[in-house]
Amino acid sequence: MKTLWIKLLLWGYAVFSMAPLVVMLLSSFRPTSDIFDDPIGLPAGPEFGNYVKAWTEASFSTYVINSLVVVVTAVLLGAAVSLLAAYPLGRRRFTGRGLFTAYFISGMTLPAHLGVLPLFYLLESMGLIDSLLGLILVYAAGSVPFNVFVLTAFFRQLPAELDEAASLDGAGPLATFWHVMLPLVRPAIATVIVFQFVPLWNDFFYPLVLMRDESKLTLPVGLTHFFGEFQNDWGTLFAGLVMTTVPLVVLFVLATRQIVAGLTAGMNR
Questions:
Q1: What is the pTM of this model?
Q2: Contact 176/158 with Cβ under 8 angstroms?
Q3: How far apart are the C-alpha atoms of 120 and 206, rounded to whole Å?
Q4: Rounded to an integer, what distance in angstroms lies between the CA atom of residue 245 and that of residue 247?
Q5: Burial class (CB in 10 A: 0-12, 13-18, 19+), 58
Q6: Cβ pair 50, 236 in contact under 8 A
Q7: In sequence order, what are the residues at sequence separation of 6 or more whose Cβ sits closer than 8 angstroms to the Cβ of residue 269?
Q8: C-alpha angle with apex 233: 228 to 234, nearest 5 degrees?
Q9: Cβ atoms 86, 152 nearer than 8 A
């Protein structure tokens, strides 16, 4: 009976949480006049005019492409750098390892927004203001401390015998890292990718501060322009919100198994 109540509670919470998303999706296929008449009604038929209008007239295609380029590149770059830093910290003993670990962890203790002024001047001196490359580098660097913290813990959990076996088979450090260690820490990689992708996809602060050209805006800042221009066209607004949400939903669906494995790793050790 207790298990039944827990399941009912969880399913009820899921329905309550998903209801706004379902209303948003259905409304994106309805004309604005129908939404005003019946806010939670069903669409009369599949109508994609709102999506076409949002994609073409509202420059939504530009915002989506910019966000995908910036966030995907920054997440992959940050994950690659973090893996190269976390592997020796987690698998090797050397002088200063604790100091390096503390250095990376210290990056998680200070709010990044406190350094926005020197960061702005640094990027300006490098000609990276109003540049997608500058935004990518900021995002990638900001993700390294958390990524290193998580990945180092996973590398340390792997048995030391793996290195010895790989060495006996003639594998060097790079071959051991690439062929042995990386496949074993895939849950951790998926975890850090998702945990970095979501806040970067929704980040409003850095694009607002570092970007000037409207053609280089990402979705969060572009949405403010979008809402100002189409504030009375609810059908188009809902279509834009659906397109903003879809990449996050797809990412969670594809990575759910790896995320759960990553979050629960070590519980039975």
A1: 0.86
A2: no
A3: 10
A4: 6
A5: buried
A6: yes
A7: 157
A8: 105
A9: yes
Residue whose C-alpha is closest to residue 220's, from 235, 198, 239: 198
* Best CA proximity match to 150, nearest among 89, 96, 213, 200: 89
> HSE of 121 in the Cβ direction (CA atoms, 13 Å)?
3
Residue 147, both tokens: 């990524």
Q: Give the end-to-end CA distance of the chain in Å, rounded to a whole number.
A: 30
Taking only the tens of pLDDT, the chain with its 269 residues reads 678 888 889 889 888 888 888 889 899 998 888 888 888 888 877 778 889 888 888 888 899 999 999 999 999 999 999 999 999 998 888 888 889 888 888 888 878 788 888 999 999 999 999 999 999 999 999 999 999 999 998 898 888 888 878 887 788 888 888 888 888 888 889 889 988 999 999 999 999 999 988 889 999 998 888 888 788 888 888 998 898 888 888 888 877 776 666 555 544 44
User: Using CA atoms in the order 209, 213, 214, 219, what is the torsion angle rounded to 10 degrees?
Assistant: -40
